[in-house]
Amino acid sequence: MAISEGDLRRRWSEGQPCHGLWSALPGAVTGEILARTGADFVVVDLQHGARSEAELPGVAAAITAAGSVPLVRTRSSLFPDVGRPLDLGACGVIVPNVRDAEHAREVVATCRYAPAGSRSIGRFSGGAEDPLAIVMVETATALEDLDAVLAVDGLDGVFVGPGDLGLALGLTGADRRAELRGVLSSIVARAGAAGVPVGVYAHNGEEAAGYAAEGATIVTAAADAATLAQAMAQHLRVARDRPGPERP
To answer: What positions does the domain HpcH/HpaI aldolase/citrate lyase occupy (predicted)?
Structure first.
């Protein structure tokens, strides 16, 4: 059954987890395949993925036709980089490198038409009148200002980038993993207490389920590029390790 950005907003506000997939690989077919898995949403990654903005109308349309919600991680938090995906079919944005609450307010305003915001009229294909506005917590300053970020009016959620946040806090390496995990759990708890939907980038379903058990509702279960590589490598191992027929 098809789901809309309004359904995601409602379910998140009710504390219900929604499950999605992360997409870095190019092509509308990729988006359609991911959406057809039953994902509630598919995040098209323009910051680190292999897609370009020119692909978005086709990719977003394919995801929508397959019954899922197309979201986009934008290239940056700049006004045009947030607005263009919304004009090209995205039903919401996940905006990286947000510095603090004031910056988060600017991002939300970029997603809303006047008089509520500063979004420019010019939607080209698909998309939404009232898209989801989600900011990433992945800088030390955003973490320091987290309570104020969570109080930003019109914000639909926060999404944590563990890799960049770990770098920003100096919590990289295996010996600091537990400490970083504690920080992530704290963010999830604080967002939940404030009634703000929250998610954490996860590398696999087990990790995603762990965040959901703590209260995360924006649940990304896997990323296409990494999952494809892992699955193909596993098939190769099986093919190479299985003994061949005995020869006389």
So the answer is: 20-230
End-to-end CA, the chain: 57
Closest CA to 98 of 155, 33, 183, 52: 155
- Looking at 3.40.50.300, 3.30.565.10, 3.20.20.60, 3.40.1080.10, the CATH number of the domain 5-241 comes to 3.20.20.60
Identify the CA nearest to 69 among candidates 87, 51, 89: 89
Number of H helices, E strands in the chain: 11, 8
Residue 247 predicted with pLDDT over 90? no
Measured N-to-C along each axis, helices 79-87 and 101-110 cross at an angle, to the nearest 10 degrees, of 30
Q: Report pLDDT for 157.
A: 98
Per residue in 160-216, pLDDT tens? Answer: 999 999 999 999 988 999 999 999 999 999 999 999 999 999 999 999 999 999 999
Structure tokens at 106: 């600017």
Strands in the chain per DSSP E: 18-23, 41-45, 69-73, 92-95, 132-137, 157-160, 198-200, 218-223
Q: Which residue has the tokens 């990289």?
A: 172
- Average pLDDT over all residues of the chain: 96
Locus of tokens 């009232």: 130
The dihedral through the CA atoms of 156, 78, 63, 21 has a sign that is: negative
Residue ranges per domain, the chain?
5-241
Could you give the CA distance from residue 141 to residue 37 in angstroms, rounded to a whole number?
37
